[in-house]
Amino acid sequence: MAEPLVATYSLCACDLEAGQWGVVTQSRFLAVGAIVPWAEPGVGAIATQSFANARYGSNGLGLLRAGHSAEEVVELLTAADADREQRQLGVVDAVGGAATFTGSGCHAWAGGRTGFGFAAQGNILVSEATVAALAATFEATAGKPLAERLLLALEEAETAGGDRRGRQSAAILVVERDGGYAGLSDAVVDLRVDEHPEPIEELRRIFAIHERLFGKTPREDWIPVDDELGGELQEHLARLDFENLEDWGAVENLEERIAGTDAIDPVVLEALRTAT
């Protein structure tokens, strides 16, 4: 039985300074995020698509973990696969090395591009411009957070043409050792739009919510709580029937942005003012 045809475009990338690896993807395929993106902090990132072999994800990470380079992983995975000419694969390793593979049996337009720290690829695309936009946007946005660079690249790739069959799902995965919720998860961002007429726009909307709840404002940008602001906070909390900011923040899923009483994250302050 043939594997599902995950006709899509994707970008695997890393930010070595931040210790992050990630994948972003969009497709005219249900729940692309369940198949294409794979990543492990300190190890690498993988996208497996076309007549997707999902084992490329888990097995590929295992090979990266064992010390193989991105190019070696592509060679080892495809050499062992009799259906390799129907596969498409992108890999970024622990040191920013990248490789991409497009089998001769992938439907046109199909191909990929690599550079330091990224591998961009796609199949059944309107044209090569989609993959070119992934690569160019990623390179042009150096200095921004990895998740933002991935989303910007996805948006530009869609503008350049995207999947010639249309749109259905999109996903983003970014990992960092202990960089996720409460420092007890490696998933900094793990969001999926499984079925939507405008999946990239919906992914961006959900990402904005994610950043509001789980993003990090530098401590130096927090607002000192003086007597006047402290009184205002207590007034807001009293109207909402809460005794302290921590209890209210837990209900609003903002607990990751609350630490102590001497200063307040401006995101939390805005949310509290809006709530009353």
Low-confidence stretches: none
Shape: elongated
Tally of helical segments: 8
CATH level 3 topology of the largest domain: Glutamine Phosphoribosylpyrophosphate, subunit 1, domain 1
Strand/helix succession: EEEEEHHEEEEHHEEHEHHEH
- The CATH homologous superfamily of the largest domain is named Aminohydrolase, N-terminal nucleophile (Ntn) domain
Please name the CATH architecture of the largest domain: 4-Layer Sandwich
The share of residues in helices is: 25-40%
Distance between the termini: 57 Å
Overall pLDDT level:
95
Q: Class by helix and strand content?
A: alpha+beta
Q: What is the gyration radius calculated from CA atoms? A: 21 Å
Largest sheet descriptor:
6 strands, antiparallel
Task: Report what the structure shows.
This protein is an alpha+beta fold. The chain has two domains: 5-214, 4-Layer Sandwich (Glutamine Phosphoribosylpyrophosphate, subunit 1, domain 1); 219-275, no CATH class. It has eight helices and 13 strands. It has helices at 55-65, 70-79, 129-140, 146-159, 199-214, 227-239, 245-251, 266-275, and strands at residues 5-6, 8-15, 20-27, 37-40, 44-51, 87-93, 98-102, 111-115, 118-122, 169-176, 187-193, 223-224, 263-264. The chain has a six-stranded antiparallel β-sheet with strand order 8-9-2-3-10-11, covered by helices on one side. Strands 1, 4, 5, 6 and 7 form a five-stranded antiparallel β-sheet that branches. It has a two-stranded antiparallel ribbon with strand order 12-13. Strand 4 and strand 5 (44-51) form a beta hairpin. Helix 1 packs across helix 2 and helix 3 (129-140) runs antiparallel to helix 4 (146-159). It is elongated, with a radius of gyration of 21 Å. The termini are far apart.
